[in-house]
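Note to self: keep these together.
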Amino acid sequence: MEQELENTTTRTINQDEILQAALRLFAQKGYFNTSLTDIKDAVGLKTTSGIYQFFKTKQAIAQTLQENILDSLSISIDDIRRRNRKASEQLREIVDLLFKLTDEAPEIIVFLLFVKTNDFLPEQPPLLNSAPFNKIKRIIQNGIKEGEIRTLDPLLAYSYFFGIIQHTISMVLTDALPKSAENYQAQAWLAAWGCIAKK
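Structure:
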């Protein structure tokens, strides 16, 4: 009877549940402080064999998570670029998206921006060279070309702009700023855009 219950539990677990549990744990405890046993417990399995039918290693879980998050962000950025012509409009919507995710899905933002994935996914390109961030760099390059953004090295412009955005989000996530991200979104946007906008 007990074996039947475990089999029933195992059958109801899917890959997304494992990924969601791992994402929460990686964001809260860090990758190296999270074990497959922790993930198994978080999804309610009795043994780790239920995880192995989807993922061979913890690293495979982390890699799938990173790929899924980057793919989703890349699709969102494509959509933003289709809807808006100007670099300022595109960057504003990307900031809006990041602040919305900070409030609604903070684990995604922590994993994306603050977990040092290169420490455990050394084969993956650095975040700055991933598809969505290459698209953001192109937005900045186009903004410079169109005269909307000051003539700066595009990587410096990216650094000035996203340094403010990322630091504000970090302060929200660590409770250094006491309110939700939405409350700081407009101010952060103005400060970040002011650093790179052509006067």
